[in-house]
Write a structure and sequence with these properties.
Length: about 300
């Protein structure tokens, strides 16, 4: 008899929170960009929540030698959220794709999602989209969003049928206004493919070159985020303020939490209601604590 097929390994996640944050100087001269506040939570909470919403429970945080201890102090081992955190140093900001080389042995042939530490994605149906991306057995998935300044991003162009044609990093003359967001899903080959990425003219291992490999073999899925979605790159003063205002508006007007790993952990079943109450108690003097307590109370009475 033939042996039954081996179950696929659970997808892992990488949260890249390195860089020097030069576009936010002087704020980032003393603190990591990803630890700055976006309304009532540190910036890193938002991409972390996104990875958890995709069902990912093994997450590596990559940051600079100076900043990594602060992330450990903030996040610990992840057990409070029902997940597992690992930490690695990125000695110098040599490109997003470098994250897969840093985490290569830890990935150990697993599929992987990568989230940039300064990106916020919000949508009512985001969980469905993320889990669809994480469950694709082969290829890669990226998300595209229409922007007014596409020359700042990796830009994807489409043919008349909506199929992705090419991705160009920070083009001088963009062929579309669809920017690739800072959230990427890859199959188990990503660790090996990342080794083939060569430094770009600006000396970085570009994530766009990795995405182009999948595109050329016909296995890159580009999911376009429409009107019901919001994507914010909080890496500049204006966008940092816009992100904070957006979160404040949603939470104060709708009573709905945005970017809360505590809430996501509970809704995903990673923690129970008693553990949620303990997390609420840690921040009991804040509006976040009140909303978490309300969530726990509602779950008990439902």
């Amino acid at each position: 008899m033939s042996s039954p097929p081996m179950a696929a390994k659970p997808m892992k996640g990488i949260l890249l929170a390195g860089g020097s944050g030069t576009r936010l100087h002087p704020m980032t001269l003393a603190a990591s960009k990803q630890l700055l506040p976006v309304y009532d939570k540190p910036m890193v909470y938002y991409p972390l929540s996104t990875l958890m919403l995709a069902g990912i429970r093994d997450i590596m945080i990559i940051s600079t030698p100076a900043d990594l201890p602060q992330f450990k102090r903030l996040l610990g081992d992840g057990s409070q959220f029902g997940v597992n955190f690992e930490y690695r140093v990125q000695e110098s900001p040599d490109g997003i794709a470098q994250a897969f080389l840093i985490a290569g042995d830890w990935l150990d042939g697993c599929a992987c999602a990568l989230a940039l530490g300064d990106n916020l994605i919000f949508a009512d149906h985001l969980g469905v989209m993320l889990r669809a991306a994480s469950n694709r057995p082969q290829g890669a998935t990226v998300f595209a969003y229409q922007v007014r300044d596409p020359d700042r991003y990796g830009v994807v162009s489409f043919d008349e049928s909506g199929r992705a044609l090419e991705i160009v990093e920070k083009p001088e003359h963009p062929t579309s206004n669809w920017a690739v967001t800072g959230l990427y899903f890859y199959d188990s080959r990503v660790g090996e493919l990342a080794k083939k990425v060569k430094p770009s003219p600006r000396g970085e291992l570009e994530i766009t070159d990795l995405n182009q490999m999948y595109l050329e073999e016909g296995t890159l899925h580009v999911d376009r985020l429409g009107r019901g979605c919001a994507w914010l790159d909080a890496g500049m003063p204006d966008s940092l303020m816009q992100a904070g205002t957006f979160v404040q508006t949603i939470q104060s007007r709708q009573g709905m939490l945005v970017g809360s790993p505590e809430e996501v952990a509970f809704r995903m079943g990673f923690i129970n209601v008693d553990q949620l109450r303990k997390l609420a108690e840690r921040v009991k003097k804040t509006e976040l604590g009140r909303l978490l307590r309300e969530l726990a109370d509602h779950a008990v009475s439902a």
